[in-house]
Amino acid sequence: MHPAHPDLDALRTHGCVVTGGLGFIGSNLVHRLVAEGVAVRVVDAVVAEHGANPRNLDAIDTSSVEVLETDIGDARVAPLLRGVSHVFNLAGQVSHTASMTDPVRDLELNTITHARFLEMLRVENPEARVVHTSTRQVYGRVDRFPVDEHTPARPIDVNGVAKLAGEHLHMVYARAHRMSITSLRLTNVFGPRQRLTSDELGFLPVFVRKALQGESIELFGGGEQRRDCLYVDDVVDAILAASTPKALGAVYNVGHVRSHSLREIADELTSLAGTGSEVVTTPWPPVHRRIDIGSFETDSSAIRHDLGWEPATDLTTGLRNTIDFYREHPWYLSST
User: Fold this and answer.
1) How far is 5 from 167, CA to CA, in rounded Å?
2) Who contacts 42 (Cβ-Cβ below 8 Å, separation ≥6)?
3) Is 261 within 8 Å of 224 (Cβ atoms)?
């Protein structure tokens, strides 16, 4: 089985919009699209602490990229939506702890702005194919593994609620307005161009930073919680696969077939980094404990069956590539 491929002819002819295109996953998608000869219009609010950085598009052909730094709900976005064949909607706030300290802001960024964006898209270009990125956080704590799309969504933090609401908004527009929309529930993603200097954007960039700098990696509790982690190139493949007609109106899990404990991931990182970094355990901070989902293992068989997508990168290879990238681009370790 081979993964479904996007309509590159349409993309090359008409171009596309990538929201969140200065961020981690978005910038990797932009690099791939430009390499394929696609003109890209990037919209990114460059919200402090979220990981967006214009330098993520360094070494790219700037003649193929137009960047508008603004909220995706801003009326100035409307002209960018006209005429493109595809819209990749990756914008959003991803910090679970931040969503609990400022819940209204999280709802604004992950739900309200998306409602404005979808309404603009309905008016300006309802024929565009749309891929929206959601998160496995919508499931919350689950009782059965692996987790498929039929598992009830019971988010345990505001970020999960807001992401689920944003996902439902996209599906409402898909069904009520017959728009070509697909949503992907991504698991833990890692790789090049991820912000390393924040402790609020997931455990993987924190682990990578500490391993590279020879610092101790702290595991809450015993570090036995399991995660399936995806290298960002595989996520870009899934996003492009989901932009095909076969995926329209669907919500897919996107995760790895193998899971690892946090301790296994930390041990592998320290071994690969070779900096003397150690793995230590520490008691759970209350702010993290109350929104921890425990272990999580994704069932991605639906997207594999429908679109032929499956991850191509194992954990060790992905971590090695990640370490190599940041050693070649050390500014990520100090950039704010």
Assistant:
1) 23
2) 17, 18, 19, 21, 22, 26, 30, 57, 65, 66, 67, 68
3) yes
Tell me the CATH architecture of domain 8-193+230-257+297-312: 3-Layer(aba) Sandwich (3.40)
b/e per residue 281-295 (b: at least 16 CB within 10 A)? eeeeeeeeeebebeb
Helix (H, G, I), strand (E, B) or coil at 200: coil
Encoding tokens for residue 103? 């819940």
325 vs 193: CA distance, rounded Å: 9
In the chain, what are the domain boundaries?
Answer: 8-193+230-257+297-312
Length of the chain: 336
pLDDT tens-digit map of 74-127: 999 999 999 999 999 999 998 888 999 999 999 999 999 999 999 999 999 999
Q: What is the pTM of this model?
A: 0.96
The 8-class DSSP code of residue 199 comes to: S
User: What Cα–Cα distance (Å) separates residue 206 from each residue in 13, 194, 200, 203?
Assistant: 40, 10, 9, 5
* Cα–Cα dist 134/215, whole Å: 32
CA distance 223 to 98: 22
Q: What does the DSSP 8-state code read for residue 81?
A: H
Q: How many CB atoms lie within 10 A of CB 149?
A: 16
| Whether the bond into 152 is cis, omega within 30 of 0 | no
Using only C-alpha atoms, the chain has a radius of gyration, in whole angstroms, of 19
- Helix H, strand E, coil C: the string for 89-146 is ECCCCCCHHHHHHCHHHHHHHHHHHHHHHHHHHHHHCCCCEEEEEEEHHHHECCCCCC
β pairing state of 260-261 and 226-227: antiparallel
